[in-house]
Amino acid sequence: MTQTLDPRGLCPGCAHVRIVESSKGSTFLRCDLAKSDPRYGKYPPQPRMRCEGFVVSVGGGTSS
């Protein structure tokens, strides 16, 4: 399990995150691990400070 001291949590820097923006301008962090593993929520509560699926992303996530 990975931990961080970053107050934003792990998700913004994870390779499995997808940044989703609604038509109203709200931003959500979607976990792509939820597609194949029921242990992960599609939109996990933030900030998430521990996650077994965390993988460091060079780009800090992707937009859709």
Report what the structure shows:
With 64 residues, the chain is mostly beta strands. It has one domain. It is built from no helices and five strands. It has a three-stranded mixed β-sheet with strand order 3-2-5, with no helix packed on it. It has a two-stranded antiparallel ribbon with strand order 1-4. Strand 2 and strand 3 form a beta hairpin.
Would you summarize the structure shown here?
0% of the residues lie in helices and 25% in strands. It has no helices and 5 strands.
Mean pLDDT: 85
Order of helices and strands: EEEEE
N-end to C-end Cα span: 27 Å
How many DSSP helices?
Answer: 0
Uncertain segments of ≥5 residues (pLDDT<50)? 1-5
**Total discrete domains:** 1
State the main characteristics:
single chain, three-stranded mixed β-sheet, mainly beta, disordered N terminus, 5 strands, 0% helix, globular
Topology at a glance:
Layout lengths: L1 E2 L13 E5 L5 E5 L18 E2 L10 E2 L1
Parallel strand pairs: 2-5
Antiparallel strand pairs: 1-4, 2-3
